[in-house]
């Protein structure tokens, strides 16, 4: 039986959703009372804003909310009416498209996005700066951009270096440069908001983040070694992504601890998300925000459970930075400059996916490649080859994380079913 | 219009046309002369420095007839067709000889991706035949911090060129490289004047040949031929037709311009790298050479890929005014996406100025594959292009 809506089981998932609504309402109130408010891309070092208590919303999170609320068809229609193409950059352009909606306060998700006074993005592709600029203009926000440099050093196992040995992981001049970028960003925010940045507060934020991410590490390890898995990505993606954008707060730490505790209890009691689990699947790519139920389509029929997504695993491997107190800014630089590269730069992404696939005893990989995003062009050939050379079959398909217009669940379900039958049951590790 | 008899009767033009059409001969000539070649992937790779190293800069360009077998194997579908073709050439799928080395620069994001892929193939398939690679990590946001980063990036590139060429590159060498490029630039300014004047003497197609041939021949030879040609072209018949500014994707060949000009227009200027943009900015003569070169590339005219929308609007306003264009043709291939975000704001500006415009996006490459393009251009120049224009 296929459900139209995803069935989320965890208390932590529901709590995260509830908290988000409450937090968003409070943010709206802060903006209405005249506070500065920032809209930032996911790869922006938002820890600076957290330390300065500047309220902010993350672009990808908001796009996911709009996608989940089935708003994107309307928004991309507005883009088209305004003379823009409606088939580009859906993940990054959703909020700009929403800004064209004159009815947003009434029909937008949770009362619509409040008007930011600041918008910040990294120039990680040729379109992002332009989209944020157009968005800023619609809202009267001040645009701030950070540049993106290219890694020359490529130690294959980045996850063994990034917590402690980031000086070894990155080119020194890239790190120096990123620290300088952080200083410039701080100066901009101080002048814009009238708030002074406190390096000690940043250190506190960084410590809170380490604590939060260490729970994701424990959670990832628990899921990796527990079969059948106590949870699937339907719960972990939502629970982790929502809290990840609250990182640096005590709520996020407590939530991550609660998530771990809840999953641990499930594992200890032998409760499985998919009791008939036979095949463990890895989801590569962004969350399929407009159709989370899709992930559960293969559980009953095949015992195929999506147990892995990058959201939890990145929390486990990519965020922790030890010895923060020695130089909190440099530790933060060592976090944010790697995010794009870990996910989108071969061989870093392919090697990590392989490590994770082996660690989580993955039988097959379903890999969603976006149709219209250059930033997510990440060497899918190398990813597929690396995994398949290790005996793990990979299905690549095109789809969009937030734009449901081209999505056909039946067609996609048939595609994954064929993959499970032919490549996993027929010839994969358990075949 | 295409290329007229007067141009074909010019010895200078025909030499330029030969180099433009026989691009791979540049590498063959260099090999014969015992000189090393450096492929430039992206316009941010400073040719002055390659010349200073005594090496031959070679622009990486699409082979129109390539089957793209290597690109289809390694690249996702969302690479623009010309970018696919660049990759295919460098990954050994083309028919042209490969340069000895390749330098890539982030003048557009797709170059970064191609560099990542080539680097990974080189790492995992050591016998792949991809030339040694270097990334010139230039940044284009206009702030002092980025300028300083760029100076360091060129220091690294200098070191790489010294290693590749096996010789030390002096300040004098760099100044000589700059002089060669500057000499060509001033020659091309004469061509620009002949396009932008009240009665244009050089068509857009002819201009593409004149400018683009410079990527495939020694700069001193190119500059001399361009000057000779400019002298001759003063006596060529004036061109009639709607004055068009071309905005959008780089045109590595004349196919699209042929269609525009066949529809009754004259392309008098453009904002892409195979046209006026590639020589707009000079390197400062009095600055330290490396800094002058870095600034030249960083501060060149706002590109479709690196410029923000407001900058692109103002750049277009200025570009149109400088050549007294009466219409603007926007044209981008499929997956050349960045410029698409500029277009509505640029159109709004043009509408306000009373300048007609037409937009072709998601176009197929080569241009011949676009059914209906000729008619659409024709309709535009017969109709809206005239009605909206001043």
Describe this structure as you would to a colleague.
The complex is a heterodimer of chains A (431) and B (390). Chain A is an alpha/beta fold and 431 residues long. Chain A contains 18 helices and 8 strands. The longest helix of chain A is centred in the middle third of the chain and has 27 residues, at 199-225. Chain A starts with 10 loop residues before the first helix and ends in a 6-residue tail after the last helix. Chain B has 2 domains: 23-169, Rossmann fold, CATH 3.40.50; 172-387, 3-Layer(aba) Sandwich (Rossmann fold). Chain B has a 4-stranded parallel β-sheet, with helices on both faces. In chain B, strands 6-5-7-8 form a 4-stranded parallel β-sheet, with helices on both faces. The longest helix of chain B is centred in the middle third of the chain and has 26 residues, at 171-196. The interface between A and B is large, with 42 and 44 residues.
Oligomer: heterodimer
**What would you say the CATH architecture of the largest domain in chain B is?**
3-Layer(aba) Sandwich
Number of strands of chain A: 8
Cross-sheet strand order for the largest sheet of chain B: 2-1-3-4
Biggest sheet statistics of chain A: 4 strands, parallel
User: What is the domain total for the residues of chain B?
Assistant: 2
Radius of gyration of chain A: 21 Å
Low-confidence stretches of chain B: 386-390
The rounded Rg of chain B comes to: 20 Å
Percent strand of chain B equals 5-15%
Distance between the termini of chain B: 24 Å
Q: Estimate percent helicity of chain A.
A: 40-55%
The general outline of chain B is: globular
Helix content of chain B: 40-55%
Q: What is the H/E string of chain A?
A: HEHEHHHHEHEHHHHHEHEHHHEHEH
Number of helices of chain B: 17
CATH class division of the largest domain in chain B: Alpha Beta
Question: What keyword list fits this structure?
Answer:
heterodimer; A: 431 residues; alpha/beta; four-stranded parallel sheet; 18 helices; 8 strands; 9% strand; B: 390 residues; Rossmann fold; 2 domains; globular; disordered C terminus
């Amino acid at each position: 039986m296929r459900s139209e809506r995803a069935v989320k089981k965890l208390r932590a998932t529901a709590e995260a959703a509830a908290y988000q609504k409450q937090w968003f309402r409070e943010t709206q109130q802060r903006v209405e009372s005249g506070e500065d408010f920032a809209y930032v891309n996911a790869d922006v070092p938002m820890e600076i804003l957290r330390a300065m208590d500047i309220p902010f919303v993350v672009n990808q999170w908001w796009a996911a909310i709009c996608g989940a609320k089935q708003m994107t068809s309307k928004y991309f229609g507005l883009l088209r009416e305004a003379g823009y193409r409606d088939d580009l950059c859906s993940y990054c352009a959703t909020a700009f498209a929403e800004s064209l909606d004159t009815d947003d306060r009434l029909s937008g998700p949770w009362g619509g996005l409040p008007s930011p006074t600041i918008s910040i993005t990294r120039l990680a592709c040729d379109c992002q700066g332009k989209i944020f600029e157009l968005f800023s203009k619609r809202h009267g926000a001040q645009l701030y951009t950070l540049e993106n440099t290219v890694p020359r050093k490529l130690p294959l196992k980045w996850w063994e270096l990034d917590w402690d040995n980031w000086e070894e992981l990155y080119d020194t001049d890239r790190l120096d440069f990123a620290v300088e970028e952080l200083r410039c960003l701080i100066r901009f925010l101080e002048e814009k908001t009238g708030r002074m940045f406190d390096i000690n507060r940043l250190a506190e934020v960084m410590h809170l983040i380490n604590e939060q991410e260490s729970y994701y590490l424990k959670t990832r390890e628990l899921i990796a070694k527990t079969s059948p898995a106590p949870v699937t990505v339907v719960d972990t993606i939502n629970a982790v992504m929502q809290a990840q954008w609250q990182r640096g707060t005590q709520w996020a730490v407590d939530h991550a601890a609660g998530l771990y505790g809840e999953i641990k209890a499930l594992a200890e009691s032998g409760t499985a998300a998919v009791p008939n689990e036979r095949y463990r699947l890895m989801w590569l790519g962004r969350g399929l925000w407009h159709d989370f139920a899709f992930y559960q389509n293969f559980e009953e029929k095949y015992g195929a459970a999506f147990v892995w997504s990058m959201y939890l695993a990145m929390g486990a491997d990519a965020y922790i930075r030890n010895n923060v107190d020695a130089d909190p800014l440099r530790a933060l630089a060592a976090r944010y400059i790697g995010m794009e590269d870990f996910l989108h730069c071969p061989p870093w992404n392919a090697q990590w996916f392989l490590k994770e696939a082996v660690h989580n005893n993955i039988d097959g990989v379903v890999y969603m490649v976006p149709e219209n995003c250059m930033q997510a062009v990440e060497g899918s050939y190398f990813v597929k080859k690396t995994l398949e050379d290790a005996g793990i079959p990979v299905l690549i398909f095109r789809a969009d994380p937030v734009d449901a217009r081209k999505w056909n669940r039946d067609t996609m379900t048939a595609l994954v079913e064929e993959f499970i039958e032919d490549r996993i049951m027929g010839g994969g590790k358990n075949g | 219009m295409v290329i007229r008899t007067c141009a074909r009767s010019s010895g200078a033009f025909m030499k330029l046309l030969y180099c433009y059409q026989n691009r791979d001969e540049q590498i063959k000539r260099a090999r014969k002369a015992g000189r090393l070649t450096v492929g430039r992937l992206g316009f941010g790779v400073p040719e002055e420095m390659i010349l200073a190293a005594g090496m031959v800069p070679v622009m990486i360009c699409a082979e129109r007839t390539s089957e793209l077998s290597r690109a289809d194997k390694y690249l996702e579908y969302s690479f623009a067709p010309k970018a696919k073709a660049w990759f295919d050439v460098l990954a050994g799928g083309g028919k042209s000889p490969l340069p000895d080395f390749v330098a890539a620069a982030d003048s557009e994001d797709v170059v970064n991706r191609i560099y990542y892929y080539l680097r990974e193939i080189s790492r995992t398939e050591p016998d792949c035949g991809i030339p040694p690679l270097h990334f010139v990590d230039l940044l284009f946001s206009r702030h002092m911090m980025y300028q300083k980063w760029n100076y360091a990036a060129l220091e690294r590139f200098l070191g790489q060129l010294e290693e590749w060429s096996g010789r030390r590159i002096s300040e004098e060498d760099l100044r000589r490289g700059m002089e060669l490029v500057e000499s060509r630039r001033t020659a091309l300014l004469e061509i620009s004047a002949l396009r932008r004047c009240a009665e244009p003497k050089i068509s857009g197609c002819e201009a593409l040949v004149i400018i683009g041939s410079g990527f495939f021949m020694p700069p001193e030879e190119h500059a001399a031929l361009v000057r000779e040609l400019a002298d001759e072209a003063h006596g060529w018949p004036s061109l009639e037709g709607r004055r068009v500014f071309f905005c959008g994707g780089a045109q590595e060949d004349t196919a699209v311009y042929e269609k525009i000009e066949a529809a009754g227009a004259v392309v008098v200027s453009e904002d892409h790298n195979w046209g006026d943009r590639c020589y707009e900015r000079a390197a400062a003569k009095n600055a330290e050479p490396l800094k002058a070169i870095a600034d030249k590339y960083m501060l060149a005219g706002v590109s479709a890929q690196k410029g923000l929308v407001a900058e692109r609007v103002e750049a277009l306003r200025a570009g149109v005014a400088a050549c007294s264009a009466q219409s603007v043709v926007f044209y981008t291939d499929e997956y050349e996406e960045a410029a698409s975000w500029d277009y509505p704001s640029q159109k709004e500006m043009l509408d306000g100025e009373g300048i007609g415009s037409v937009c072709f996006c998601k176009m197929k490459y080569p241009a011949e594959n676009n059914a209906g393009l000729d008619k659409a251009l024709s309709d535009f120049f017969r109709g809206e292009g005239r009605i909206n224009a001043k």
